[in-house]
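Protocol step 4 of 6: structure prediction from sequence.
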Amino acid sequence: MAELGKGGNTAVGTGRITAELHAVGDPVDLSALLVGADGNVRSDDDMVFYNQPSAESGAVRHLAADATGPERIEMDPSALPADVDRVILVGSCDPDDVSRTFREVKDVMVRAAQDGADPVLFRPPPLTDGERAVLLLELYRRGPAWKLRAIGQGYAEGLAGLAADFGVRVDEPEEAEAVGPSAADGGGSPYGTAATASVPTPAAAFTPAPAPAPPPPAAPMSLVKPPLGTISLDKGSQVSLSLDKKDRELVVTASLEWDGGSEQRRKKGADLDLYALFVPASKALHGGAKIPGTLVKAGHVPQGRPLRPGGATDPAQATGGTGGTGGTAKKGKGGGDVVYYKHLGSLKNQPFILLDGDARVPGCESVRIVRPDEQGYVLLCAYSAVSNGFGSFRSFGAKVVVTDGRGSTVTVPLFENTKTRYWVAIALVDFTAPDGAAIQHIEAYSARMTERRPVLHADGTIEMNGGPVEFKRP
């Protein structure tokens, strides 16, 4: 594995290259600029980022962080046209918040990997002078060959200023139009209002035809991250919900919705309960061998680094619990960290998660989640209080709906018709994701006729049938 210093370079082949961005602290976005020999983009289409994820028919692609890896840019040198001299990779802080700089970002590293070759790493020097963007690596031509070069140059103006320097037209706030002197002030004509009114108007017969209006210019590039809109997850998939973890006004609402299914099912009862198992940021681990949302067996020892400096201790020495407070959980022991009908939670204090109440008929139960900076992982589960787990959760029309109240709504449906199961883990909300929160479809069921609650470990892994048994009484 080669590691480049600032200004260093190395030869690469013509196969596809995947560049991953790694960082700790405030989120950092990854983008790419396709630049010609003159040092400028050919058009605004040459900027590849979250709002424009592809250029040159996929020769350069932006991929959001997901279960398979962090945010990344894929580049195919063999597919780039001859007038593209370089592809420059850029890291940048949130363009909507000018207070964000690289002072709050640690361990920035870009890893470029090509099939059949050792990965290339570059760690830019610390950026402590208010930089809001940085040129990371560039893929550039040397005759018929290609090379990678480490740059490490910071920009105080952020992504907008950096992109503009390369010729991209970025959307700027509209300025108020200049207003000239008014007629009432004697302005607009050296003769004043009365003199202006006395100027004769040319005869209509001699008025030339108006010239055709020029076509409106193309809209400049917007750097504002759009909401997701309304989407539904496929089985096993996930989506990244962009959010500002320091936003004290943000409320993420996660609801368990169910209609009871058929009329016959509703008559027999359809009391489902929403459980929100959580790992607070102070106890969360990330970067371990198993990605969050992985199903593990009893005896699993969480691995990874503490999400928050000075937070979680050595996971192998910590005690376990349903909320994922550390290491292995003794089967059926400990209530763990959970919000449900007996423990509604709080929005003003830890856990900053609140259940709105217990619906005993088909309808909806919701938890509101605030202070995303205090959250690590939240696992949304449903418990069937119907006798012997009667019927499948899907037959009751059960699903989870997560919304940020800012234009993003994610539905997590169920696809299986498993019967006589008391528990289903439906969705994991991973607040350790660098861009905000990753929402992942889980759909894992308890064993047949087993009432043990699921376990959410400190690294975001999930153990079914490992928690306590607690019967719901009428």
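Step 5 (inspection) to follow. Confidence is low (pLDDT under 50) at residues 173-204, 314-330.
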